[in-house]
Design brief:
It is built from nine helices and eleven strands. With about 240 residues, it is an alpha+beta fold. The chain folds into two domains: about 55 residues, Alpha-Beta Plaits (2-Layer Sandwich), CATH 3.30.70; about 160 residues, NADH Oxidase (3-Layer(aba) Sandwich). The strands form four sheets. Strands 6, 7, 8, 9 and 10 form a five-stranded antiparallel beta sheet that branches. Strands 1-4 form a two-stranded antiparallel sheet. Strands 2-3 form a two-stranded antiparallel sheet. A hairpin with a 2-residue loop joins β2 and β3. α3 packs across α7 and α5 crosses α6. The longest helix has 21 residues. The chain is globular. The chain starts with a strand and ends with a strand. GO terms for molecular function: oxidoreductase activity. InterPro entries: 4Fe4S_Fe-S-bd, 4Fe4S_Fe_S_CS, Nitroreductase, Nitroreductase-like. It comes from Entamoeba histolytica (strain ATCC 30459 / HM-1:IMSS / ABRM). Its cofactor is FMN.
Length: about 240
């Protein structure tokens, strides 16, 4: 459990922290946010609760709440304010999404080989893909890392794609594969910051990456013979953060 404290004198009981907590560690009782002791061991210290608390009632590791900087659309501001978004208002306009993806061609690449290519899967196609791959994974000997999200998905709780409007997949073939992982990580990190600078949101989707380790899964989405090196969900956030954490 992280060193999480709630100033109940300041808390206004809006419940935004409970809705934003990905691990369901918080609850509202008697008009105040509280730590659910049964769920507290699941806290992963992400800081979302502190960042979203408009009243400034939550403190993680005894950090004081700092307001978002005015330069939050700059590179430095984007680095400071980026958060993993899991609630969505809608899809990013197609032309703007293309613009964001085209930006990352300027990212550095080992020996300038540039082995990474990208595929974007949008809803409702993404729902179809996740449903099929989760069903297949449930019948295979899956790793513990993917077993829980697959079971949750089959119970209609999407902790794989987090209901994101878009999923971008970074992939490459066997040529220059020794550099592909680093290249994909750098490019997706730069894409994440570009999205933040435009007011969009994203999250790194490790569960999808695990699903796509299965060659069948890559063939199913039309990438036979390719290897996945990273996945990211994207969209217009339906959430506003108020503090640096």
């Amino acid at each position: 459990m992280a060193n999480l404290t709630i100033n109940t004198d300041v808390c206004i009981g809006c419940g935004m922290c409970t809705k934003e907590c990905p691990c369901r560690v918080l609850k509202v009782e008697g008009g105040k946010a509280l730590v659910d002791e049964k769920q507290s061991p699941n806290c992963m210290s992400c800081g979302h609760c502190q960042s979203i608390c408009k009243a400034g009632a939550i403190s993680l590791f005894e950090q004081k709440c700092e307001p978002l900087p005015d330069e939050h659309t700059s590179v430095i501001g984007a680095i400071k304010t980026r958060r993993s978004v899991r609630k969505w208002k809608g899809a990013i306009p197609n032309e703007e999404l293309k613009e964001m993806i085209n930006l990352i061609k300027f990212a550095p690449s080992a020996c300038n080989y540039r082995p990474i290519k990208f595929m974007v899967i949008n809803r409702p196609k993404l729902t179809e893909v996740l449903t099929h791959l989760a069903s297949r994974a449930a019948n295979l000997e899956t790793t513990p890392a993917i077993f829980r999200p697959v079971c949750a998905y089959q119970a209609k709780v999407d902790i794989i794609g987090r209901d994101a409007p878009h999923m971008i997949i970074a992939y490459a073939d066997d040529q220059h594969k020794e550099f592909a992982n680093d290249d994909a990580t750098i490019m997706l990190a730069e894409l994440e910051l570009a999205l933040v600078s435009k007011g969009y949101g994203s999250f790194w989707c490790g569960f999808m990456k695990v699903l796509l380790k299965d060659p069948y899964a890559m063939e199913y989405i039309g990438l036979k013979g390719q290897h996945c090196y990273g996945c990211m969900g994207m969209g217009i956030p339906n959430i506003t953060y108020h503090h640096l954490v």
